[in-house]
Design brief:
By secondary structure, the chain is an alpha/beta fold. The chain is built from 11 helices and 16 strands.
Length: 339
């Protein structure tokens, strides 16, 4: 298959919509990361997403909509609890995904046969224009090969999926850089399943105290129950070993400088002090910058000649730091070294 690159103008958007209507796969820009989209109501098209990405068959997809009314129009959800409504009124369109009881029209490939479904309205104008032009909701996981760092540019999508998908719509670099926040309303208390562009603090400011899945910050035992299938899979990993260093900035600098054949992610403040190949991902307290730079930096270090292993400082966990922490501990396969 020849993967075509589409431009983010009317002709590119219409072509993307046409491919999607015909059951094809198109990678589209969103404000979080690039998504690999298919018609969410078409079981065969959705199954092709799993094939193209080599995604584990039990990891459900998020359904993307252009307007809140699409939920009722397409019968996507059986229920939409008040707190979920309050949240989406505050944060949609945006990087927030809500998990609610599935509606009749959700084919089993989308939610892997669960009783729930994940729904999001993206903020990216191009993404919403494609959904509206396709005239159907779009199932869209991140447009990477499963397990690899998520794609934040069209070039990343091409690196992973060229020849396996119909098209990629090039909308430039993603503004947020990590995936959406996922919160489930299937139990009594709202439960955070994945941290992302909307923080716990922002959510609790609207609906009060929420529960946070322990799987966000730690590796669960193999037999532990998981609320979200995606929590148990390998994620975001370059092919080289990543080790997170739990230490002061001074100790981190000394540690990486004492190693050969390594590369590292670092904060802007430490850039000039580090002698190994390095990529600065933002100032230590600028979590938004770190989130935006993270996946591209991991991809770059993975390609760098002479770099055999990757070190990164262990991030803090307040605000959007929690999303950076969550992606990095998974990229590192929970490999943390305390100095
Ligand atoms: P991705 O599409 O790669 O951004 O991943 C989507 C995330 O949403 C995964 O972590 C899934 O496990 C989670 N997810 C999607 N649908 C559901 C659902 N019905 N229940 C719980 N988690 C879900
Ligand atoms: Mg993903």
């Amino acid at each position: 298959m020849n993967t075509i690159v589409l431009t983010p103008y009317e002709c590119g958007i219409n072509r993307a919509a046409e491919i999607l209507k015909n059951g094809g796969l198109v990678a589209i820009p969103t404000e979080t990361v690039y998504g690999l989209a298919a018609n969410a109501l078409d079981q065969t098209a959705v199954l092709n997403i799993f094939k193209a990405k080599n995604r584990p068959a039990d990891n459900p997809l998020i359904v993307h909509i252009a307007n809140f009314e699409d939920i009722e129009k397409f019968n996507l959800a059986a229920e939409f609890p008040t707190k979920a409504k309050l949240l989406v009124q505050s944060f949609w369109p945006g990087p927030l995904t809500v998990v609610v009881k599935r509606g009749e029209s959700i084919p089993p490939a989308v939610n892997c046969g669960l009783s729930t479904v994940a729904i999001r309205m993206p903020a990216h104008t191009i993404a919403r224009k494609v959904i509206a032009a396709a005239g159907v909701p779009l199932a869209a996981p991140s447009a990477n090969s499963s397990g690899k760092p998520s794609p934040t540019t069209a070039q990343h999508v091409i690196e992973d999926l060229h020849g396996s998908i119909d098209a990629v719509l090039d909308g430039g670099e993603c503004a947020i850089g990590v995936e959406s926040t996922v919160i489930s309303f299937s139990g009594k208390t709202p439960l955070l399943l994945r941290p992302g562009g909307i923080t716990v603090e922002q959510i609790e400011g609207v609906i009060g105290k929420i529960a946070v899945s322990p799987a966000i910050t730690a590796e669960l035992p193999q037999d532990a129950p998981v609320e979200s299938p995606g929590l148990k899979h390998k994620h975001y990993s370059p092919s080289k070993q990543v080790t997170l260093i739990d230490a002061t900035p001074q100790e981190f600098v000394k540690f990486v400088n004492s190693h050969s054949n390594c590369g590292c992610l670092c904060y802007n403040e430490d850039f000039d002090l580090i002698k190994t190949p390095k990529i600065a991902i933002g100032a230590k307290c600028d979590y938004a910058a770190q989130a935006k730079a993270l996946f591209a930096a991991l991809r770059l270090l993975d390609e760098m000649q002479g770099v055999e292993q990757i070190f990164a400082p262990l991030p803090l966990t307040d605000g959007m730091g929690l999303a950076v922490y969550n992606r990095l501990i998974r990229a590192a396969g929970f490999n943390i070294l305390k100095l």
